[in-house]
Amino acid sequence: MAMTLRLDDDREKRLRETADSEERSMHAVVVTAIDEYLARHDAQRFGELSDEIMERHTALLDRLAQ
Length: 66
Known about the structure:
The protein contains three helices and no strands. The protein is mainly α. It is rod-shaped and about 60 Å long.
């Protein structure tokens, strides 16, 4: 899927500087940033779900631990 990313001047400058310093394309830097964001989001959601499961099934988990 193609998309247009609109950045203000400061963000574009910082992105370009980062890409140049890492000898990568701006596209590659943006894709990496998105991947890292999604991984953090997934990990956070996993933590929230595991907390919910542990709270909901505390008694069962205690019995299984014995």
